[in-house]
Structures are given as C-alpha cells and as structure tokens.
Description:
Elements: E1 17-20, H1 26-37, E2 41-46, H2 50-61, E3 67-71, H3 77-91, E4 94-99, H4 113-129, E5 133-144, H5 145-148, H6 157-174, H7 177-182, E6 186-192, H8 199-207, H9 211-219, H10 225-235, E7 245-248
Parallel strand pairs: 1-2, 1-4, 2-3, 4-5, 5-6, 6-7
Helix pairs in contact: 1-2, 1-10, 3-4, 4-6
Amino acid sequence: xSTSLTPLAAQSLAGRTALVTGSSRGxxxxxxxxxxxxxxxxxxxxxxxxxxxEKLATELRGHGSEVLxxxxxxxxxxxxxxxxxxxxxxxxxxxxxxxxxSGGMEADMGEDYALLLNRDSQVNxxxxxxxxxxxxxxxxxxxxxQAHFIRTNPTMPSYTxxxxxxxxxxxxxxELIPDLEDRGIEFVVVSGDMIEGTITATLLExxxxxETEKRRETAGRLYNVAEFAAEVARAAVEPIPEDxxxxxxxxxxFAR
Length: 256
C-alpha cells in the first residue's frame, strides 16, 4: 500500500537516516513511507509483528531506500540499546528520530504499563539515541490533543490514564530541550486531534460508542492516518515553532 499524499519533496532527504518507532502499521508506517519517498534511509521498528514489518520494509526498498528492520520493545532497555547499536553499525548516525510508538489501553499489560511506555521508554529511547544524533538532527514526539491538553481539559475516563502518561512523557522530553539545543539537536511535539483509523480511536469507540462521530461533528473534520502522518513527516523538516509544538486539527474545544 502507498499513500496518495506527497508531503516531502522527492530526494529532499537523500543521504539522511530516519528512525520511526512503532512503524510497522498506522501513523508510523505512513510516516516511514513519506521518508522513503523523499529518499531517506529508513529504520523500521516493530515490537512483535515481524511479518507485517518485513512487508513494509520490502515496499520501502522499492523506492530505492536502504531499509533496516529492527524488532525492539521500547520498554526493554537492553532491546532499545541493541536497536540503536544496529543503527550505528548500519548507518553510522541518525538524522531524524520520530517517537511515535505509544499505548496503554491494552487490558493485560499491568497498572504501570502506560507510564512505562509513554514516559519512561520515550526518555530512554531519546537518551540512548543521543550519541547518533548530530548537529542539525531532529527529534519528533507524536501525541494527541487529548493528552497534550489533559491538564486543563478532561478526556474520556477510559483514556485518562493513557492521556496523563503521554503528557508526562511530553513534559519529561521537554525538560531535555536545553541539553538538546546545546548539542544542536532540534525537538518538536506534534499533537493531533482524534485520528480516524488508528488503534486508539478504535478502542475508544469500543469503550464509548458514538464518540468518534461526536468528535467529528464538534471538530468539523478528523484527519485520517495518512493525513496526520504527512504532518508528522513535515514536522521533521519544517521550521520549529517557538514553543516547540505543532497542533494538527481542531483545538477550539481544548483549554489552553
């Protein structure tokens, strides 16, 4: 499958290397596609769906990109260290790191899993990647309005724990900005409204029937996976706002 959008100019990322966490499906997969279409070397990261990730890698190689496929569980520090060691052996350095993988709505992962994945693992992934990120490289953290604005705008009870953990992850990463700037590494948060077609939206709809349509009516429209991934891809190259935040989709109903 390929997307119909072309957010990045052809060959604009030639010679650069991008890693997208959780990129075997959904927003991560489409973001990886856009990078490959722009000529980047791409690191596809997956947790446990190797066949699905390999299918994507094969597709991306069709664009002429060099693709490294790495299975790694972000909550496992040794696994993360091994992933970046493999990136270093293959490409030597990293120009774009997209922290896309998240979760926490799973019913069987334990009380602390959301915070472990959405805060601790995000910080660990970035810190582990630092030796590979040179001056002019960029880190993109992907989140949602429901999480970004959770401190001032309550969300659905079924999503509150996840939203709080993702906001905690965003805050922890923002604390690293001064150090990143000293290293010449750029950082930006991309926050989106509810995205149609994502696992999260499906789970929220299951827990709160009619919620997707309700949000669509309130917002006027909802982005789909490919459209939001295009915004994530653009965030990797376009100028960074002063507050390090790109807000995608309607924000009028969220308190500032």
